[in-house]
C-alpha cells in the first residue's frame, strides 16, 4: 500500500517531517482460532526532519473463546521498538 505521512512534534529537528512510503504485508488464518499478520514498511521524508524510516511488524491473535482473544504484537522501528501481550474481552 502506498502511504503519505506527516508527523509533528519536538522529537523532530524542524518540529515536523513529511514524506511518503510503502507497506507490504500478509495475513494468514492459521487455524480457526489463530491469525497472524506480518508487514514491513519503508518511508522517505524529504521535508522537515529529512531522512528515512522503516518498520517491521508481527501480530498474532488467538481466540480463547467467543469473547476472549490473546494478542501478541512485536513492532520494530528504526527509532523505536516495542512488544505487547494483551488479553482482550469483547462484549
Keywords:
91 residues; mainly beta; 6 strands
What does this structure look like?
This protein has 91 residues and is mostly beta strands. It has strands at residues 2-8, 16-29, 34-48, 51-63, 68-77, 81-89. Helices cover 0% and strands 75% of the residues. A six-stranded antiparallel sheet has the order 1-2-3-4-5-6, with no helix packed on it.
Please describe the topology of this protein.
Blueprint: E1 2-8, E2 16-29, E3 34-48, E4 51-63, E5 68-77, E6 81-89
Antiparallel strand pairs: 1-2, 2-3, 3-4, 4-5, 5-6
> N-to-C SSE series?
EEEEEE
Helix/strand/pairing category: mainly beta
First-to-last CA distance: 32 Å
Quote the average pLDDT.
94
What is the overall silhouette? elongated
Number of helical segments? 0
- Give the strand order, joined by hyphens, for the main sheet: 1-2-3-4-5-6
Number of strands: 6
Q: What's the alpha carbon Rg, rounded to whole Å?
A: 17 Å
Amino acid at each position: 500500500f502506498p502511504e503519505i505521512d506527516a508527523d509533528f512534534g519536538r522529537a523532530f529537528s524542524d518540529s515536523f517531517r513529511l514524506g511518503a512510503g510503502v507497506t507490504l504485508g500478509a495475513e494468514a488464518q492459521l487455524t480457526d482460532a489463530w491469525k497472524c499478520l506480518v508487514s514491513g514498511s519503508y518511508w522517505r521524508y524529504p521535508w522537515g526532519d529529512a531522512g528515512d524510516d522503516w518498520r517491521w511488524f508481527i501480530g498474532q491473535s488467538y481466540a480463547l473463546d467467543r469473547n476472549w482473544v490473546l494478542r501478541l504484537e512485536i513492532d520494530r522501528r528504526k527509532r523505536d521498538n516495542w512488544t505487547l501481550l494483551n488479553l482482550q474481552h469483547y462484549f
